[in-house]
Write a structure and sequence with these properties.
By secondary structure, this protein is α+β, with helices and mostly antiparallel strands. It has one domain: Herpes Virus-1, CATH 3.30.40. The protein is 21% helix and 23% strand. The protein is built from 2 helices and 6 strands. The longest helix has 11 residues. It is globular and about 40 Å long. 10% of the residues are buried. The chain binds zinc ion (2 copies). The site of one zinc ion has 7 residues, from loops.
């Protein structure tokens, strides 16, 4: 087991993604082909307005359909 938390704090933003909704940085965001990114928390809060079936979500930027778990 490696405790890498202290080490990781030194690293600048690299592969992390900035949520287009709350502007915070996350290691994972749902992404649309147009470049729109939304974090797990924002997706959870807005899923009622972005997904009608729980299988796909609609991008508020371009209206494109994106599948959950298909990143
Ligand atoms: Zn967010
Ligand atoms: Zn889009």
């Amino acid at each position: 087991m490696n405790d890498s938390s202290a080490y990781r704090r030194k690293h600048r933003v690299g592969r992390e993604l900035a949520c287009d909704c709350c502007r915070k940085i996350f290691p994972f965001c749902w992404r649309c082909r147009c470049g729109f990114k939304i974090c797990q928390a924002c997706m959870y809060e807005n899923v009622w307005g972005m997904s009608c079936n729980g299988i796909t979500w609609e991008c508020p930027d371009c209206g494109g359909q994106n599948g959950f778990g298909n990143q």
